[in-house]
């Protein structure tokens, strides 16, 4: 399998301006398997200049033509899904079965955005002033600089690429330095679909490439999926440069509220999926479970059995349940959280197997955690969830909301009235009832509080990448 080692700028494949490269390890083995160009500030400047030059022509391209390019890209992704999945599986360390599911989602998201863009319209308002007609337009902003994460490198890149380009903007995308290869494969599939300069990919780290991109004075909007601290840095960069628009999808610490009437077997299955899918490296992961004391033991027993049945191992095997985490440093960080939780003296650990190679770490349930514990309060971003018992609905709703995050939450109950009341009271951008984790391109994804601002997916995402313009026509002079 070939992995691109070059960047894609102005319609061409190019090395870093200084020729530097980075070695990329495979999380499943820990061994270097590819190298990638280490971009520079000069590379960012070149990509932004290309995007700026391409903007007028792309903005003037009818939306139907833009949509047709995306429909062609969706077909190519579908035809190439096995290769894309194998690249992503090896680069991220996720099981091939999960990577294949994501490729199907990506093709669907591309088609949704292509159709959704054609429904975007201005509005013929009315005469608010005698003899003058007001019209509203939605215009593109210009050059967008986006930073994609390493946990879902291609899917979340699509969430940035699609609304930006389909609304007439041009784009410079920086994938994570850990996981650039599926995005570069996408650029290869798309290189003849867009005019030169419309879509650019610059690889490198956040300290130089990312920082230059989000602070560049020509970039009119920055989109980031990352940590709260990185989001704060981007806001400072916007303030210090040109007050560019920001779209931020940041951290999460999703609570799972399990009431006494919940279907425990269903709840266990959904917590397992929500907590351990993608090795728990998901900002919406089911990372803190609050369970009613009446069903606490039943839930814990079910989780213990399910954790011990998880199949960690060869990520190329379609029966594998969970892979490694992204880097050795991240593995050590996750295991540090678990060690400190154990050291509190009031918790018990349920842990699955650890193959011991690469960057694997054992899936873990921390039982007996208290609401104030670090393991409950802080985003771990790994295959770890905590279990805390409760007795009062008001208490558990307050605990769930007592966080700086507000991305996602879930409620498990058979009582529809309770489900509606609790979901209304929860301060999160998405609330599932008797489920956890599924997303669909028709519905928005985004958080409250310090989980960010703006929405990915849905027509609301398309609106994020446009500017509303008021045009007033003096009919008396016509």
UniProtKB/TrEMBL annotation:
InterPro entries: Ald_DH/histidinol_DH (IPR016161), Ald_DH_C (IPR016163), Ald_DH_CS_CYS (IPR016160), Ald_DH_CS_GLU (IPR029510), Ald_DH_N (IPR016162), Aldehyde_DH_dom (IPR015590). Residues 13-471 form the Aldehyde dehydrogenase domain. The keyword Cytoplasm does not apply. It comes from the Bacteria. One of its GO terms (molecular function) is aminobutyraldehyde dehydrogenase (NAD+) activity. SUPFAM superfamilies: ALDH-like (SSF53720). The keyword Acetylation does not apply. It is an enzyme of class 1 (oxidoreductase). Keywords: Oxidoreductase. The active site is at 249. Its EC number is 1.2.1.19. Belongs to the aldehyde dehydrogenase family. This is Gamma-aminobutyraldehyde dehydrogenase. It comes from Mycolicibacterium vanbaalenii.
